[in-house]
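Table 4 source record.
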Amino acid sequence: MGQESASLFLYGDASAAARNIRQAIYDGPYDAVDFEYSPVILESQPTQAAGDVLLEPVQVQPGSPVVDVTGRLANLAEGVQVLPAGCNDPACVVSYTGTAPAQMEQMVVRFKLRPGLTWSDGAPLTADDSIYSYEVARSLYPRVRAELIDRTQSYQALDPQTVEWRGVPGFRDPSYPAGFFTPLPRHAWGDIPPAELVANETVSRSPIGWGPYVIQEWTSGDHITLSKNPAYFRTAEGLPAFDQLVFRFIPDRDQALAALLAGECDLLDETNHLELQGDALLELQQNGKAAVFFQPAAAWEHADFGILSSNTPENGGPLPLFGSKEIRQAVALCTDRQRMANELFFGQSAVPDSYIPASHPLYNPDSRKYAFDPAAGEASLEAIGWVDADDDPATPRLAQGVAGIPDGTTLEFTFLTTGEDEKQRAAAILQESLAGCGIEVNISAQPVETLYAPGPEGPLFGRNFSLAQFGWVSSIEPSCYLYTSQQIPGPYPEYPKGWGGANPGGYNSPDYDRACQQALFTLPEMPEHRQAHFQAQAIFTEDLPALPLYQRLKLAAARPDFCGLALDSSTESGLWNLESLNYGEGCVP
């Protein structure tokens, strides 16, 4: 591993190293596979069809907590907009008036544990252990799952195997499987005050789990040794393959690769950050000296257009170059994004069409696409009024009848990014690509803390830029909300999120808002859910408030006879199926 975890307590260290090691101690409760939840210690996935997921009608008294149509917590009062019972569409939203109880719906989800689960010390693992985890998370509020806890009315055990979650009325969560709290061992830790769990050495360095391995020893700065858990519920399947597992900490990636080639390590995971050695790894694989595993990640980089600036050009703000979708589309056609993905990630990454990757089950294959086509981009620019006045492609185009832009203005802007090697290489490709269409780009590499500073001071989230690159992470439930008007940063109450909004470009489309809102109102089994997500993507790729650039890359390397590793875009850990890893004769063709 490229780093050592600070703690293995579930609600402690959230680093990639800690997540990977915890895969050996726990298993599940869910695995994320191909952007879908796969139950591990639950009998099945709760569904509406099976009666495990319900929308129950409830009467809500004035002053009681509700979740309004924007997803915010509110106390029911005059003017609060809510979903009435039976409403699955923004068209039927009502604004509460009067003093009578409101007829709303409350989401209920019931999770059922597999029978016979035990902790590694032999104690039964029950629904109460999930309740204990919820209680611990609440005691650590707001550092742990604050948004879910805020929207949870109750979390209780119905019997030793069944947990019931009830949401605040009005809250509908398409990602409801994630509402199950990963069990913690009440029988072992219940006497420790929750506030002390984070600092407790036994809890942080030798946590009890139910997974394939148990902690044997931790030598700080060097390694963690684990041994096979005899109480593991998949032992009868011959899992895990190894009697002992050792995580070695080797921060230097060159030393880590040397250890792999010397046979001192069997696997280098994502924490070794091998991206800079990708070409060397591919050569090692071709020569049979290593096995290399690539997978486009859920993390994706994009360039957001400054559509609605918080500052005017007269006061030092940027020109409103990108107010029309036509120029944004032209920039997309003129940007060689596939070259970015190929050169940055050895031809192993992908260029997304929108805010979710093509591998996502809710991806809309009919959404508009923008292959690199400079000729089409130049034709679009000419049609808008950006002309090549001197017939010299090496000079920037000039405005001639462009709405909102003085004639004679050069097509030139500053591109904000950060100083990492990857970002600088991407910026150089963007600059070169756009120059071929007569667009001059000035690159401004800023410190991370400067670019991402909150508004109004920060250039990005203060909405004071023309084009800026940053990243998001795709989730199982598509994050259409990132580009809704509710997420535009700005002074409260004019802007509901204040300066904490996630839509710094200022994109505002009522049609997009409605489609995304309906997707968030509905649950995965409802036909409207898929339809709304498809519509939101279609609008996004037409209006193009942000230009998706490339997906980042998950990368691991192993001994040449290693098998079982299955990097997945949607999971937080590349070791999600650690119990299935093997090598040599243990690998079945």
